[in-house]
Structure formats: C-alpha cells, structure tokens
C-alpha cells in the first residue's frame, strides 16, 4: 500500500451525498454550485460516493490524483473488470473510451508524443490573426443584432461559434459543416456524464453514428486530396506508422480528429461565455479591466477557477493506496471535483469572491499525463475575444442570468442574453 498524502479523511454515510448530487443538477445548483461544493468539502477531502468509489473535494488531494502515476483513467480494461460491464458497452461510451482522454500508458504516451506540442508558441502566433478575424466578424454580428433587436444571445452569436471557427479552420473543415458538428457534439456529450439515463444514452448513440460518419468521410476525402493542413499531416504520419494496416491508421486518425475537434468546442464556449457573464454583470469590474488590459490573463484564470467548464473527472487506483488518510482499494474509482477543489479555502483565500487580481491556483486544465492539450489555444481565444469585446462594447450587460444544460460533468451555458 502506498500513501499518497494525509490531509483529512472522512467517514460519512454514502447516502448523505445523494441530495447534494441532486442539487447540483437542479436549477438552483446549476445557477450557483458553490454552496453544494462547500457542503461536499465539509464532509471531507475524500467522500464516499453512493454507488461505491469516492468524490475528491480538497485541492491537494485532487492535485495528487490528477498528477499521480498510480491513478489511471477508466480505460477498456478497467471497464471490463466492473461487476456490471454492460454499463460501459454503450456505443457512445466505447467511442469516447478510445480517445486520448481515456487511454493509459503506453498507448497514451505513444499517441501524445506523436502529436507533439499541438499549440506551441509558433503555432499560436500563426493562428492569432485568423482568430482575431473570427472575433471581429462574430462581434460585428453581435453588434448588428443589438442594433436591430436591442438584445442578443451571446452563446448563439459568439460563444458557441468562435471555438468551431477556430478549430474548423485549423483542420481545414468546410465552414458549412460547423452547425452539424456543434449539433452532434451537444448531443453526444450525454454519454460522458457520470450517471447518464437510458434516454440520454440513446441520444448519444445516435449522435455517435452521425459523428463517426462525418469524421470518417472527412478523413477519406482528405486522404484523396492531401494538402498542407494539419489533418493532411496526421494522415501522412499515421499511414507511415501503419503501412500495411490501413484500418489501424484510419481508426487512430478518426479517434484523434474526432476527439480534438469536439473537445475544443463546449469547454471553450463555456469559458468564453462565463468570462462575459462574470465581467459584464459588474459594470465597475468590466470598466476596470478595460482600463487595465494587462490583467486579461488574470481575469481568464479567475473565470477558470471560479466556474470550471468541466466539474468532474474520474480516475481509478492502480494499486491499493491511501488518499488523504482514506484507504482506497485497487480499481476503485475516484471522482475529482474541480469546482470544489478550486474553492478550497486552504488554497484560495475567500474562494467565493470573484477577484481578477487574485493570482490564485486552479486545477481546471487537469494535470500530469492528461493535462489539457488545448489549454493554450483556449486561453488565446478568450484573450483575443475579451480584448476586442471590452473595447467595442463598453456598456454591454446581461439582461438575465445564464441558462445551463442539466449536467454534472460538462458545464454548458445554453444562453446568455445581453444588451448594450
């Protein structure tokens, strides 16, 4: 048994957690999850889950799980060892289990190294003018709607659109396909929830078929018309890795292209919309940041800390171990609660206060081998958007609170009505 930190154990009844989880998916919990996170943290750093396993709430304990080599992602092998593996054999679930986010070494190491640093400084600098162009065009659209109607939905007009324009152009995906990609992405994500219903799994299964058809056709078409784009480069690389096994090359290409595309959409859209919500709801805050644009990166980090786009991620113990004083048996699942960890007062003082100049810490991009691939790109999109939006719309204000999708894992703002 390996000890991985002694912080603060817990022995609450597993049933105590059930009403808290229900509140997280209620209208009240979606609008403001902070009280629920606080109550979960009060139960301990490691809290028994009703179905077995644990929720991890403390910053240090979560950090240890995300960065520790003895904590693995729930891959196919782990799923087949479950008492009821049928839960994991749903089409949409299996589709996502083949992606980078659910691969462990050595397969994960091989694929991640092959990708290299997707968004290094040179790549981002090359992408910046194109992102700036997308931002200007989308904000022109926002301005036109505000002039015509007096208000506009920021999510539909800008938030959802900037990420798909960015990654779509990067992969040379035709712009006419963007609405289709957004549509099946919003539906497929249900399978990645903690406890999806049969109805949600059915919706995800249909979306998975559409997703598979789209990206399979995209790769086949690009192979017939190779260019100098990123996807063409991936095709050349993986065809060379599997010179006598085109099916293996196609599968890897599909898994990578599909995952990197859809993973960059909802999470970034939520970051962008949250940033506009938290900044413009307080006119003084927005005005201060407009006059101090050097703090835009600080504002982005505070948005990521305060309301992370992903609220939960799962790992399992590779061996018998101890986490925050709690014995955790091999193969036991633990669910890292990003929001609870980011609001741990032992790590961030007065965590309930949104403070642009906090320079605090957050775990929103994960850690260790599965640190977010698109972190730098998401930051760049947010930085470019906020810089222009604050200048062009000094009086932009929300007219109502945001609306949220009823989810526990992937946070999604479905609408944010603004006026100017």
Q: What is the CA-based Rg, rounded?
A: 21 Å
Number of helices: 19
Per DSSP, what share of the residues sits in E-state strands of 2 or more residues? 5-15%
Largest sheet geometry: 5 strands, mixed
Helical residues, percent: 40-55%
Overall 3D geometry?
A: globular
Q: What class do helices, strands and sheet pairing give?
A: alpha+beta
Report the end-to-end length measured between terminal Cα atoms: 59 Å
For the largest sheet, list the strands in their spatial order: 2-3-9-6-4
- Report the average pLDDT across residues: 93
Ranges with pLDDT <50 over ≥5 residues?
1-7
Question: Care to describe what's here?
Answer:
It is a single chain. With 420 residues, the protein is an alpha+beta fold. The strands form four sheets. A five-stranded mixed β-sheet has the order 2-3-9-6-4. β11 and β12 form a beta hairpin. The termini are far apart. The N terminus is likely disordered.
Please supply descriptive tags for the structure shown above.
disordered N terminus, alpha+beta, globular
Q: How are the elements arranged and paired?
A:
Elements: E1 2-3, H1 17-24, H2 27-31, H3 34-42, E2 46-48, E3 54-56, H4 59-67, E4 71-72, H5 76-80, H6 91-97, H7 107-115, H8 121-149, E5 152-153, H9 154-159, H10 161-170, H11 178-188, H12 198-224, H13 230-241, H14 246-263, H15 266-280, H16 283-291, H17 296-306, E6 312-317, E7 321-323, E8 326-328, E9 333-337, H18 338-342, H19 375-392, E10 397-398, E11 403-404, E12 413-415, E13 417-419
Parallel strand pairs: 1-7, 3-9
Antiparallel strand pairs: 2-3, 4-6, 5-13, 6-9, 7-8, 10-13, 11-12
Helix pairs in contact: 6-12, 8-10, 8-19, 11-12, 12-14, 13-14, 15-17, 15-19
